[in-house]
Amino acid sequence: MRAVLSWQTDGQTVTLTRCLRLSLLRDRYQPFAELRAEFAAEADCPLPLDVSLTVGGVLLHRGLVREASRRQENGQCILSVHSQSYSAALVQNQLVPGVHSDVTLISLMTTYQLPNMTYEQVPDPISYIYVRENTAMWDAVIAYSYKRSGSFPYLRTPDLLCVSPQTGTDAVVLPEHRILRISDQTETGGIISRIEMAEIDGTPGRFVMDNPEAARRNIVRVRQIQFDKQYADRPMGALAFRIAMGNRRLYSKTVVYDGCCGEDIGDLIRCGSLTARADRIRLTADEKGFRTELRFYYDDFCNAPSSLPQQ
Asked: Are 176 and 298 members of one domain?
């Protein structure tokens, strides 16, 4: 198994196969993959504008280059790249503010022709989304996804935007003899204990919702907000959405193993007694080989907290 970095320049394909180091990160809550890599190259190697990364013949990344450099070090030429997948355009483009009616994922996302992006086929429209000033396309997709089914959008390789949970896929079984570490985490930095939202006429505290997860931890973080036009048809949805957002990554489990199985966000992973869908994948490599870190979130959007393995 080897990593291959490639790109097109002047109609020719440039291919590098000697990986010195790389880090590829994909996260359920981040709308783009991020690659940082260094490969041995020829002294006249052209600087890329975009790159693809394959490992063992499987495409794991494709995107624009944010930074690239070429240097001579200890008698060899080294090409360094920092690339983000094409889906980074979702946070770099803004939609026209106002009410967008009869919205589907395709109608929302084809407002602009984003190169190399594909979208899940979800034909049924929702009644509307409300786009505030300076709203990125990604935030509009989040609003659409939550209003449609209470879900959170995510990206699969290469640049496939999804709003429905992955279901029915065969499990990727991790080689237990190569497992290096299994750990548990909790994250409460964004958790909100109580939301109070004003009525549309400005009357404060008209709609209220408490978060039992914050109460369990004796966390007091109260938020006061104005009436949210995104949920004019069901105001309590505005509160539930904010509490769910604050609860992201509330629990998680991490598995680190030697090697690479080519996992993707949403893939079903089995490791011993643990079976869950991958929410964060970090692949690292150097001249000694590959190492994969998988994280499984247990919150309102990912693996249900009730399915968290017993400790």
From this structure: yes
Is the pLDDT at 64 greater than 50? The verdict is yes
Q: Is the pLDDT of residue 304 over 80?
A: no
Q: Tell me what percent of the residues of the chain surpass a pLDDT of 70.
A: 98
User: Which of 74, 65, 76, 108 shows the shortest CA–CA distance to 90?
Assistant: 108
Domain count, the chain: 4
* Token couple for 303: 């693996």
pLDDT of the residue at 100: 93
Does the CA dihedral 162-165-167-172 come out positive or negative? positive
Task: State the CATH number of the domain containing residue 59.
Answer: 2.30.300.10
Q: Whole-model pTM above 0.90?
A: yes
pLDDT at 89 over 90: yes
Residues 115 and 156 grouped into a single domain: yes
Q: CA of 154: how far to CAs of 125, 142, 287, 295, 304, in Å?
A: 19, 9, 31, 15, 17
User: Taking all residues of the chain, what is their mean pLDDT, rounded to a whole number?
Assistant: 93
Token readout for 76 is 């060899």
The answer for residues whose C-beta is within 8 angstroms of residue 196's C-beta and 6 or more apart is 204, 205, 207, 208, 222, 223, 224, 225
Contacts of 122 (CB under 8 A, 6+ apart): 104, 105, 106, 148, 163, 164
Range of the domain at 111: 93-162
